Amino acid sequence: MTSTVPAPGTRTAEGSALQAVFLDMDGTLVDTEGFWWDVEAEVFADLGHVLDEAWRDVVVGGPMTRSAGYLIEVTGADITLPELTVLLNDRFEKRIGSGVPLMPGAARLLAELAAHEVPTALVSASHRRIIDRVLETLGPEKFSLTVAGDEVARTKPHPDPYLHAAARLGADPLRCAVVEDTATGVAAAEAAGCRVVAVPSVAPIAPARGRVVVGSLEEVDLAFLRTLITRMN
């Protein structure tokens, strides 16, 4: 997918210290964390294994290699990581073939950011093939840049995806706001130096310095994100 970078004049919206907004995908913009768990359960059932619900908190929000590797280890399934990765992506892509449900407030937030020409990046641990399918629902025009988990040397919880997005947009990570739904994503964004809004989807996330926890994207708008940056700088 071709990414576009806004002209320099759009990098600081209306004089705000906020330079860019980075958004996670699964569980943040689209209600798909449950889809991933269902797909994992189905694939492992085909392999003769039942997943323990307690494992869900371990794999949520993680890169495919970590989540799939963990499930192979705890189940003892006779399958390689590359083979399982293909099965999971194939099953998930089929599941979302007719579109994906948006999280409450997602469409409104994306429209507001676009209307104010705020550089916005989708930063996900999902693979490119999955991101491009979800973008059919979200609208690729809403994003200046998209970063997939299989396009960086180290994906979340490492800071690389967010540092890459900031560099591509010519933004200072300290002046970038990130919206994430899992502890893995929050760790990646904070390691990159970004300010974080956590919207927990499956497991709780505690407030911390440089991080605000809200119950829904309906509580997040451009004014809120600008305040997050100015308050922390």
From TrEMBL:
It comes from the Bacteria. CDD domains: HAD_BPGM-like (cd07505). Transmembrane segments: none annotated. It holds the Pfam family Hydrolase. This is HAD family phosphatase. The lineage of its organism: Bacteria, Bacillati, Actinomycetota, Actinomycetes, Kitasatosporales.
